Structure formats: structure tokens, C-alpha cells
Amino acid sequence: MTQETTKPIGAVAPEPTSGNRPARGFSLRSAPLELRMLALAIIIAVALSLLSPYFLKANNLLNLLDQSVVTGILAIGMTFVILTGGIDLSVGSVVGLTGVILGLALHHFSIPIAIALATLAGAGIGLFSGLLIAYFDLAAFVITLGVMAIGRSLAYIFSGQTSISDIPPQLNDLVYTTVLGVQTNVWTLLVLYALAWTYLTYTKGGRTIYAVGSNREAARTAGLNVLFYSVVPYVVSGALSAIAATLMSSQILSIDPLAGTGLELDAIAAVVIGGASLYGGRGTIIGTLIGVFIMVMIRNGLNLLGVSPFWQGSAIGAIIIAAVLAERLLSPRTRR
Predict the structure, then answer these.
(1) DSSP for 46-115?
(2) Among 149, 165, 143, 146, which Cα is nearest to 99's?
(3) What span, in angstroms and rounded, lies between the C-alpha atoms of 129 and 136?
(4) Which residues are CB-neighbours of 5 under 8 A, at least 6 positions away?
(5) What are residue 183's DSSP bridge partners?
(6) Closest Cα to residue 33, out of 211, 317, 277?
């Protein structure tokens, strides 16, 4: 007669051995966000390298990095804004306006002071937008759309409706000086991403921005400064728009009041392709950087393949729609 042993209540069943452990299928939902975006970037790079023999040439790869700078810098500020559940449609016109301010300031001040004045102007524009949105609880879409129109108008007025071309040639050094074979504008991009990643990952302010985007009322109940951290992203976005304008002007030594037109679309696309949720609270700065590279690779590849610029806009728009749809299908979060 065998004695039957009883299992204590609450005992945990033994872990199955490797021979009988059930297989776990890989799920896109469970994959880290950055890994999904990196896999997509690799697939696009491989496809373009097969379609064009020039894609992997050293000169073209350096060109890709150079083309990533302006959009990449704008996308940092846009990431901050979108993480709070907002949107900033004014970044393109702020690039144009702060570029004009930079050009006018260079007529009277040294290069560092002129850059500082342009950056302060961009931050001030962001502060104006952020206060209207956060303090008065106005729609970010409407406010930044209005600021976009005002910024473009002021760029025309301040510039006298003409390009500013008498730029000191020393400004060129901000772009074409090389460190370890890489241009300084690319190093500027990488340093800004490192700073943004550190802030969002390791600081209380970064965690608060995520909290505001995830659940604004819960963040307020927890005692977080929701008003302040709802305004800060717009200030960051405006200041970075001025930095992008500075590097753009340094590259061509000319400032056009039309500069930056359409860049808001590229910045938003890069952030969304990078996996950020337009509802806020979800996304990473690394994902945004990968999204920027995906955007630039697609544009570069279409140019190498001789695709008309008119069709390129359709391609980018389709990619944005696909990225938003994929985010909704793959995100474990429920619809709000």
C-alpha cells in the first residue's frame, strides 16, 4: 500500500525541465520597442543596398549622417512634446524665424552671442506656446498651428522678404570641422541625443514628463508639478529649433525666411516611426533616433532610385499612417 503525499496549500509547482518546457513563441508585442525599430531599420538598409549599389558607399553613408542632423535635432524636442500628449506644429516656422534672428544678430554681435540670442528667441516662442496650452488648457494643435503662421509671417517681415546671405564664413566651422573623421554637426546631434536620453531616463523631470503623458490627473494627484513639466517640452522644442536653424545656416551660409518649411512633418514622422504614442506617455529617445535614420534612409534611397520628389511625399505620408496603425496594433495599452 503506497502512501499518498499531500501538497501544501500555496506550494509552487516545480519548473518544467528543458525536455518538457512548453515553447514560448516570439511576439512583436513583447519585443523591446527599440529592438523592433532597429530591426525595421536594418531591413530597410538591406533592401536599399540591394536596390542601389551606391547606398553603402562611404560617401553616401556620411551624407546620410549629415542629412539626419536638422530633422534629428527637431525630433528631440518633438519627442518631449509628444510624450506629454501634445504636438508642436510650429517647429518649421520657428526654424525660419530664429534663422532670420540669427542672421540679423550676426550683423551686430559675435557668433556666440548671436547663437545665444537666436536660441533664447526659440525658447521664448516655445514658452509662449507652452503657457497657452498648459495654463489655459488650450488644444496644442490649434495653438502651435497659430504660432506656425505667426512665426512664418514674422520671418518674412524681419528679413525684408529676402534671403540673408552676408553670413560670416567662420560660421561654417560649426558644420565642417571634423573630429575623428566625423563632422561636428553630427557630433552635436549625438551629444544632444545623449543628453536627452539621460534626462528622460534618469531624472525626476524625465519621469514626470512620462507621468504627465500617461495620466495627467494621476500625476497631479501624486503631487507632481504638472503645469511646469507640460510647458518645459515646448521650451525645449523651441530652443532646439533655433539650434537646428543655426546648423542649417552654417552649412549653406545663407538664411531664407522660407527655411524649415515642412520640417514639422518630418519631425513628427520620425518620432511616430520611432514608436512614440501620439496619446502620450510612451516612446523613447533612442527609438526617435532610429526613426530619424529610417526617415533619412528612405528619402536617400528614393533619391538614389530616381523617384520623383512628388512621389516621395506620398511615400513618407504612407509610412506615417502605417507607423501609427502598427503602434495601435502592437501596443498593449488599451484605447483611451
Answers:
(1) HHHHHH-TTTTSHHHHHHHHHHHHHHHHHHHHHHHHHHTT---TTHHHHHHHHHHHHHHHTTTS-HHHHH
(2) 165
(3) 11
(4) none
(5) 178
(6) 277
Angle at 200 between CA 98 and CA 319, to 5 degrees: 70
| Cell reading at 32 | 523591446
State the Cα–Cα distance between residues 45 and 47, nearest whole angstrom: 5
Distance separating alpha carbons of residues 56 and 143, to the nearest angstrom = 42
| Contact indicator for 297, 41 with CB cutoff of 8 Å | yes
CA distance 336 to 326: 17
DSSP assignments along 110-170, one per residue = -HHHHHHHHHHHHHHHHHHHHHHHHHTT--HHHHHHHHHHHHHHHHHHHHTTS-B----GG
pTM as predicted: 0.86
Q: Dihedrals φ, ψ of 164, to 5°?
A: -100, 110
Q: Which residues contact 178 (CB under 8 A, 6 or more apart)?
A: 184
Own/partner long-range contacts of 324-331 (Cβ < 8 Å, ≥24 apart) = 324/272, 324/278, 327/272, 327/275, 327/277, 330/28, 330/29, 330/36, 331/29, 331/277, 331/282
Q: How many helices (H) and strands (E) does the chain have?
A: 13, 2
| pLDDT, one tens digit for every residue, the chain (336 residues) | 444 444 444 444 444 444 444 445 555 555 667 787 888 889 889 999 998 889 889 889 889 999 999 999 999 999 999 999 999 999 999 999 999 999 999 999 999 999 999 999 999 999 999 999 999 999 999 999 999 999 999 999 999 888 988 889 999 988 888 888 889 999 999 999 999 999 999 999 999 999 999 999 999 999 999 999 999 999 999 999 999 999 999 998 889 999 999 899 889 989 988 888 888 888 899 999 999 999 899 889 888 888 888 887 787 778 778 766 776 676 655 444
Residues in Cβ contact with 7 at an 8 Å cutoff, skipping those fewer than 6 apart: none
Q: Which domains does the chain have, with CATH numbers?
A: 33-328 (1.10.3470)
In angstroms, rounded to a whole number, what is the distance separating the alpha carbons of residues 293 and 245? 20
CA angle 135, 141, 147 (to 5 degrees): 80
